[in-house]
Recover the amino acids of this structure.
């Protein structure tokens, strides 16, 4: 049976040399992602506070790793325009298979 995108993503995360916190954040985000596309729809996107609660990592560490994960191609962060924000649209994420490691934060 062929693997879906999220399973391939999880395998890549586990095979990477990313720090443990970064792996935990990515695997946590994968729970909310569409299994075929890796996209986390705006309705299912979690806030930074919710990601912190779900992973058990500190707020500063999660924010720092999200920035590094975006820079190294593991996530794409879609930030709403000011008008969209006013209408309640939140930042949403898309999971991508990035570089196997990145510099220590």
């Amino acid at each position: 049976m062929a693997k879906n995108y999220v399973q391939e993503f999880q395998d890549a995360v586990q095979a990477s040399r990313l720090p443990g916190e970064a792996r935990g954040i990515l695997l946590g985000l994968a729970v909310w992602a569409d299994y075929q596309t890796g996209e986390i729809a705006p309705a299912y996107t979690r806030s930074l506070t919710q990601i912190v609660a779900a992973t058990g990592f500190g707020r500063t560490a999660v924010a720092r790793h999200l920035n590094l994960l975006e820079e190294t191609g593991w996530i794409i962060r879609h930030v709403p325009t000011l008008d969209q924000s006013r209408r309640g649209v939140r930042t949403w994420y898309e999971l991508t298979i990035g570089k196997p490691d990145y510099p220590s934060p």
User: Anything to note?
Assistant: The mean pLDDT is 90. The beta strands are 75-78, 92-95.
